[in-house]
Amino acid sequence: MRGGPSARPCEKARRKVVDHATMMEAARRAVVSASGVCRQVQSALDEVRSITKDDKSPVTVADFASQAIVALELRDQLGDVRLVAEEASAFLREDDHATHRQATLAAVREIRPEITEDEMLAAIDIGAGDTDHHSFWTLDPIDGTKGFLRNQQYAVALAFIEDGTPSVGVMGCPNLPRDMSEPLDVPDSEGCLYMAMRNEGVYECSGCDTGDAPIRLTRLDHAEGEEIAVCASVEKAHTDLGKVGEILELLRSEHGEEVGEPVRLDSQCKYAVVARGQADAYLRLPTRKGYVERIWDHAAGALIASESGAAVTDIFGRDLDFSHGRGLEVNKGVVAAPPRLHGLLIGAIESLGIGQ
Ligand code: AMP
Ligand code: MG
Q1: How high is the pLDDT of residue 9?
Q2: Is 0.90 topped by the overall pTM?
């Protein structure tokens, strides 16, 4: 039972019915603000570390601040929202974490100068929504925490899920080079923003903190004979790099394809890099049997890549199914690539028996 008999009419009254374009605009504003705050915290990494005496605290602070800001922006623009986000305020409420709490409050006040500590903690918990509905928002306030700490790639990833499929997705990539000839491990001064609506395409904005001058991305299929550039996680525990190598070797030896060294970067920026044609494929191959991918790690990115023309499935070629709670329970890993190459990759995975 999700509420008493009178809960439903009240809930409906507070939750506005809005179209996808309105949701996208709300999501854009939310992600733009959160990306700006993440940048701000990153520019003061050492200061935050020295206040909290904790090496990982900058990402903790930016993570909570990002979640509070996205939740408040969505609520202000769309009324009560169902938001399923990665973080919960319990950690910040602990007495031992008062310095983290204060640093997070200072970060949130960059955008919301009047906010109190209690309001900020309550805002973080707007993200404690459940997935037991046909539609809800999902947020990874900072995807790629290790990338954030290394001042490399990370993303603020927000998506709206309807009937098990993302229909609106916005992703801020504050360190992603605007110029594709620049190396991916060097942070850009403005980053990029991606916005997608199902069946309406995907747009890239130069600069993660405005969302101005969007340009539509359409990626070409990978042509035979062109070198295949695959992207994958930096963290070895998050994708099986040995198997990535075996797949590429099979494409070379059996299909005569030219293959390059995998490009490694953190976070859902990998989906954006495929969407904009900088990489040909994103491979995420499970490193252990029981791992279930989290919905917020894929919802926005998967829509962004698929709206560019890429096929996005799990390693068995099945659509990603976001209708099973907080995990992609019926999927294993991810393969995102334009259709011809996607077919080759799924075939190679099958013939190598990966994931069996
Ligand atoms: P990446 O940036 O590609 O390294 O992915 C980061 C995400 O990997 C995090 O947000 C985690 O939720 C997720 N993750 C954590 N453990 C694993 C694992 N064993 N396999 C795959 N993904 C994981
Ligand atoms: Mg994540």
Answers
A1: 46
A2: yes
pLDDT in tens, 119-128: 999 999 999 9
Cβ atoms of residues 76 and 16 within 8 Å: no
The answer to whether the CB of 309 is under 6 A from ligand 1 is no
- Cβ–ligand 1 distance for 326 under 6 Å, the answer no
Beta strands in the chain (DSSP E): 83-85, 135-143, 155-162, 165-173, 192-197, 201-206, 215-217, 230-232, 263-264, 281-284, 311-313, 334-337
**Strand 263-264's sheet: what is its strand order?**
263-264, 230-232, 281-284, 334-337, 311-313
For residue range 112-167, list pLDDT tens digits in order: 999 999 999 999 999 999 999 999 999 999 999 999 999 999 999 999 999 999 99
287 touches ligand 1 (CB under 6 Å): yes
Pairing assessment for the beta strands 83-85 and 135-143 based on DSSP bridges: parallel
Residues 74 and 29: beta-carbon distance below 8 Å: no
Return the residue whose CA atom lies nearest to atom 21 of ligand 1: 238
Task: Assess whether 52 carries a catalytic annotation.
Answer: no
pLDDT, tens only, 227-272: 999 999 999 999 999 999 999 999 999 999 999 999 999 999 999 9
Q: Report the nearest-CA residue for atom 8 of ligand 1.
A: 238
One-letter amino acid identity for 40? Q
Active-site option among 52, 60, 145, 239: 145
